[in-house]
Amino acid sequence: MAKPPLHLVFGGEVKDSRGMEFTGVDTLDVVGILPDYRKALDAWRAASQAHAGEAHVKYVIVHLHRMLDPEKEEHG
Question: The domain containing residue 55 runs over which residues?
């Protein structure tokens, strides 16, 4: 059975809205680890829209499956 392509969704306040430097690691909002990109995208979208009025709050999707098995991604 194939491993699910895990994705982490998290966010928080960033120093510059154009960057990725989070201001407080202890205050990050971890939305969750999701089993596929579609669910991760839906979770990211919901979290991002909930903070749409806060310019310095950013949510991201991290492709955990790429970090856990980098050779598979390189060699297809």
Answer: 7-75
The total number of structural domains in the chain stands at 1
Which amino acid, 44?
W
pLDDT in tens, 10-69: 999 999 989 999 998 899 999 999 999 999 999 999 999 999 999 899 999 999 988 877
pTM of the entire structure?
A: 0.83
Which value, to the nearest 10 degrees, does the dihedral of the CA atoms of residues 2, 5, 37, 17 take?
A: -170
| Structural domain includes residue 2 | no
Rounded distance, CA 23 to CA 33, Å?
22
Q: What is the CA radius of gyration of the chain?
A: 14
Please report whether residue 1 resides in a domain.
no
